[in-house]
């Protein structure tokens, strides 16, 4: 997987959220969390799996809403950050963080009501194999995001330390057909790329976000979006 050594480094795990979700990055955090909640609906008493859970942003959020959730990641350092976050939120007694390979999920078929992956598929060298595993262990919903090929994301893609895979909508559709998932809804956002928001203060970012949202709402605005959210049913 692209950037695997970089991603697992202790210093990256310690600084991951501060670098990405402070300043204007707070807007990104809120938008992504809302996308997850919109996709999987009420989660109380639902069994949920998050693969590539990282520092547990979504895992902890869903646990706070009553989900019976497992967060799986390949990075021990990231998982440790997640455990600390869960403890601080008071939900560490009813969620589980597990180190493992998303390409070989250690769960039986149809084990979870919903399976999600955020900020993952841009790193995947074999996306179909990961998506197939997500489908295998899900009973109902599979949700994930992608970064888009024909967008501003491509402008700075080369500068990322681990590289990044970009997808066209046609490629995502082909992947879903290949693994047997039915697309329920797709949502496309952020004409301005994530990296831009991270570099500016939150107040300034809010102004640009309004412009961004207006551009995205134009007839062809969605085609310029740098991020897509895909909600599928098994």
From TrEMBL:
Q: Which ranges carry the Methyltransferase domain? A: 48-139
Q: Where are the transmembrane segments?
A: none
| Any one Gene Ontology BP term | methylation
Annotated GO MF terms: methyltransferase activity
Q: Which InterPro entries has this protein been placed in?
A: Methyltransf_25, SAM-dependent_MTases_sf
Q: Known SUPFAM superfamilies for this protein?
A: S-adenosyl-L-methionine-dependent methyltransferases (SSF53335)
State whether keyword DNA repair applies. no
Source species, domain of life:
Archaea
Keyword terms, alphabetized: Methyltransferase, Transferase
Protein's name in the database: Methyltransferase domain-containing protein
Report the source organism: Halapricum salinum
């Amino acid at each position: 997987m692209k950037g695997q050594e970089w991603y697992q480094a202790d210093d990256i795990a310690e600084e991951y959220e501060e670098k990405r979700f402070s300043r204007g990055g707070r807007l990104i955090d809120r938008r992504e969390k809302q996308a997850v909640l919109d996709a999987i609906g009420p989660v109380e008493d639902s069994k949920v799996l998050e693969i590539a859970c990282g520092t547990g942003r979504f895992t902890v959020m869903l646990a706070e809403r009553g989900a019976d959730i497992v967060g799986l990641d390949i990075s021990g350092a990231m998982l440790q950050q997640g455990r600390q976050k869960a403890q601080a939120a008071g939900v560490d007694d009813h969620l589980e963080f597990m180190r493992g390979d998303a390409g070989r999920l250690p769960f039986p078929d149809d084990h979870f009501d919903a399976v999600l992956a955020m900020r993952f598929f841009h790193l995947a060298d074999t996306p179909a194999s990961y998506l197939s595993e997500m489908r295998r262990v899900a009973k109902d919903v599979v949700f994930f995001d992608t970064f888009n090929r024909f967008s501003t994301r491509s402008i700075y893609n080369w500068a990322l330390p681990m590289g990044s895979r970009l997808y066209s909508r046609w490629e995502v559709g082909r992947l879903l057909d290949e693994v047997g998932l039915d697309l329920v809804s797709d949502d496309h956002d952020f004409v301005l790329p994530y990296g831009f928001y991270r570099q500016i203060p939150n107040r300034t970012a809010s102004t640009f976000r309004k412009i961004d949202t207006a551009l995205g709402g134009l007839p062809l605005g969605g085609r310029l979006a740098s991020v897509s959210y895909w909600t599928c049913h098994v």
